[in-house]
Amino acid sequence: MSLADLSPAELSALHEELTTRYEELKPAGLKLDLTRGKPSAEQLDLSNELLGLPGPDHTVDAAGVDVRNYGGLQGLQEIRQIFGDLLGIPADQLIAADNSSLSIMHDSLTFALLHGRPGGAPWARLQARGETIKVLCPTPGYDRHFMLSEALGFELIPVDLDVDGPDLDTIKKLAAEDPLIKAIWVVPTYANPNGAVYSSEVTRELVSMPTAADDFTILWDNAYAVHHLTDDEIKPVDVLGLAAEARHPDRVFVYASSSKITFAGAGVSFFGGSKTIIDWYLANLSKRTIGPDKINQLRHALFLKDADGVRALMRRHRAIIEPKFAAVEEILADRLGSYEVARWTEPQGGYFISLDVAEHTAAEVVRLAKEAGIALTPAGSAYPYGKDPADKNIRIAPTFPPLAQVRTAIDGLATCVLLAAVTRRLAQ
Ligand SMILES: Cc1ncc(COP(=O)(O)O)c(C=O)c1O
């Protein structure tokens, strides 16, 4: 029965029952962590063959370049080909780099800030005049995108993101009006945290919309392009093709990595864009490094072999993590469904479930869970400046703990969600 239908006496009885259940959690001495979207050890083990590669017999790449030496700024052709096939981007429009796409996001934005990106002056010049560069942030979103933008002095402008895409009307209006809005963050496939997928239609609107800034940039972070949780393995949208068609070929910066394909701490990252954007990035990159870790790129090419090799590996990941997502969805439905106090996403891929609890209780839920030994990301962390105006969103990352721990943690979390909701209702 919905909480809203309970009489005061029924609410008090439920409160008592939940308090008892909650107090029972504490002595169990739980140490459960649902905070960060990390692959589990079992997932990392799938790529252990990498640890023995490339081996002393493999010291040159397909082009005959010695991978142990300096050079090869754009990265190995063979690894760019594999990820180009997966992302639907020609290999010559991709750069392969070291282990973190977040570093490429940092570098590309810093280059735009200091040197200007094609089509625009250095953003820092505007900042020096006292202007504030702004970036549109579909929310809920990835906290590190927001932290990076904030660290560079950008103002974060939240825009609603639903599971089928962002609030396009607001985005179009803001981008058309304000020349200081220079960028938008987009996680197009299985977004962190709500699993949103951007369709070709939504993408076409974003690449073709008029913008007041000539150097407006779509920061297209396709971190979860191949991270399917169902048989419906959606194909990546040809964002660069659509941008070229819309006569804004230079509008998009593409980011991706193998962090959640092979090793999160030792994968290969990628930057994609038009030929102009790639040349611009390489020109700036050449002052920062003489070349990437090509040995790591070669070992990845040898291990993954081709795009189908990656797809096969991702199905093995899915076999490990899909039961964890299923457990979260089953327990939330079982414990919370009838009370109508919470909503959660049932993502078709990616690494997260986004849980909306009763308004103005998320911080309390996180506090209650922490006291019971269940660590959650701070409430509001999926919102710019960590401020969720309704204090209702909690990001659940179920991949890292073993399945049994996921079950215990979500059951405990459900108790906290209900307890916080009932307590608030009683106080009203
Ligand atoms: C949307 C998104 N982008 C990027 C990253 C980090 O990528 P990388 O490991 O390549 O730096 C994450 C990690 O959680 C993420 O969720």
Automatic annotation (TrEMBL):
The keyword ATP-binding does not apply. InterPro entries: AspAT_Ic, PyrdxlP-dep_Trfase, PyrdxlP-dep_Trfase_major, PyrdxlP-dep_Trfase_small. It comes from the Bacteria. One of its GO terms (molecular function) is L-aspartate:2-oxoglutarate aminotransferase activity. The keyword Iron does not apply. Pfam families: Asp_aminotransf. Keywords: Aminotransferase, Transferase. PANTHER family: AMINOTRANSFERASE, PUTATIVE-RELATED (PTHR43799), ASPARTATE AMINOTRANSFERASE (PTHR43799:SF1). This is Aminotransferase. It comes from Microlunatus elymi. The lineage of its organism: Bacteria, Bacillati, Actinomycetota, Actinomycetes, Propionibacteriales.
